[in-house]
Amino acid sequence: MATTTAPRKKIRLGDLLVENNVISEDQLMAALADQKKTGQKLGRTLIQKQLVTEQQLMELLSTQLNLPFIDLKKYNYDPDTVRLIPETLARRYRVIALKQNPDNSLLVGMADPTDIFAFDELAKVLKRDIQQAVVRESDLLAAIDSTYRRTADISNLAEELDDQLDESDIDLSQIAQNEDVVNAPVVRLLQTLFEDAVQIGASDIHIEPDESVLRIRQRVDGVLQEQVMKEKRIANALVSRLKLMAGLNISERRVPQDGRFNIRVRDKSIDVRLSTMPVQHGESVVMRLLDQSGDMLHLEQLGMTDDILQHFRNQIQRPYGMVLVTGPTGSGKTTTLYAALSELNDASKKIITVEDPVEYRLPRINQVQVNTRIDLTFGRVLRAALRQDPDIVLIGEMRDQETAQIGLRASITGHLVLSTLHTNDAISSVNRLLDMGAEGYLLAGALRAVIAQRLVRRVCDSCKTPYHPEPNELAWLYNTLGDEIDETRFVHGAGCPHCNNTGYHGRIGVFEYLEINEDLANALRRSDSVEFTRQARRSDTFRPFARHALDYAQQGVTSLEEVMRVTGTVEEVELPVPPLDEAGTDDASEASHAPV
Length: 596
Fold this sequence. Notes:
Layout: H1 13-19, H2 25-38, H3 42-48, H4 54-64, H5 79-82, H6 87-93, E1 95-100, E2 106-110, H7 116-126, E3 130-134, H8 137-147, H9 151-168, H10 172-177, H11 185-199, E4 204-209, E5 214-220, E6 223-229, H12 235-246, E7 257-265, E8 268-279, E9 282-291, H13 306-316, E10 321-326, H14 333-344, E11 351-355, E12 366-369, H15 378-385, E13 392-395, H16 401-411, E14 416-421, H17 428-435, H18 440-446, E15 447-459, E16 464-466, H19 471-481, E17 491-493, E18 504-515, H20 518-525, H21 529-538, H22 545-554, H23 560-567, H24 570-573
Parallel strand pairs: 2-3, 10-14, 10-15, 11-12, 11-13, 13-14
Antiparallel strand pairs: 1-2, 4-5, 4-9, 5-6, 7-8, 8-9, 15-18, 16-17
Helix pairs in contact: 9-11, 15-16, 18-20, 20-21
């Protein structure tokens, strides 16, 4: 390893790439011109212009500078060592402290080891010998985000806010209303809380006052992580400030309230949906965070299998009919629909969405926010939307009979209708619509396909290890898959700094798809849900999403524990098909609304 803090000769990355015939001189000039406009590092500009891959760049730097390349995804660093470099410095120069050596030198990973200014600044701050290594910038930033958490800052600011209450002897909700006090502890505490949530990719923030403590919980990859603080008295100040930001009534604490506001955190525009609810020890607040500055996912990125993706694409390209996306709250239904809209969105189509609330803003699409307080309901907006000559209509959720009827009729009169429904699987969606009062003949003529989905957590690549199923898990597997099991292919995450010791990092969708064929349509015309269920399970296009999840487990994408957590019991995975009697029917077939 190169070990020195002596002045080094400056090496220009562009010249290095040209000399090794990775890029041409013209390409370098074009990249440098773009770099002046964006202010980014040259390496990042070249990667974005697809002139070089990040891996190519790292390998070249490692070889030419005689420095080791370290794959941070497989490197278990010590968070205390990482924090030897101040966060501002680490982010500015894209560096990370990895290891303290016995001779007191420090191994430092750098995204751009040719940056002599970064090297000199590090030597000045650390006052010790530095050993350089090459690391991928994307991995480095992810490691910085997971290491430099704000939990200590949140605790300190909560304590400061609590002390201020002692000193001032006033209700801190008054301070929360003061727009001029930008440096007030309540403002800095909320700012830090949002920064921490965005940094770790939290989807929700929960603020929950308890009898003697205040709990702040963040949902990461679908699972809540908790921080407990003894300063319970600050809860009112936090809630009042958040209500003020959302334009809610800060003096009303007896009834639930809903609002939203937009904030900017780490150069990201975050839309916050806020919900308050009176509880035993104060007011509980839940905030859903939506990153408006992030890129919209494409259908290929959601996790659909190739066959489901092809069938789904075929259906959304049709000029009319209804396609439903179903699943519980937080299963990614809206993401799937927006990915479909992004693919359909072009100048030749008029697209109108009716949502509560509008979660993502898309160009060229007319998005309408439902507002029940002024009687702007789904039904009223839908009737108006159909007079606006739309080609495609997205209904945020089928909530009642009126919405279902209008949507179904629109889909058989020349419109493509996309919507969501809160059901556990694809087959039970039809029962739900029938129970809501939808006529069977309308469903038969309108419904084209139903796709159900869940989100499973990905096993962390950095701490992925082989896993042999427990006896109860094996019994579950053999009941579900039979002889298709390879017990050696399962993995789990041991826990590491990359995943905050959870063993998981990120999520991926698992899907089941049901396409309405002639047999299914005939069952719908008779409103015969039992026959519909039987025919659906025999359909060539139907495959339970539990099977899809188990495929991911056997591919090492997720763990068996996660599959069982998301899919439930064996009975939920493999429901028996009622046997036919000699006449080709069964005793329950007369029941039109029997449970699936």
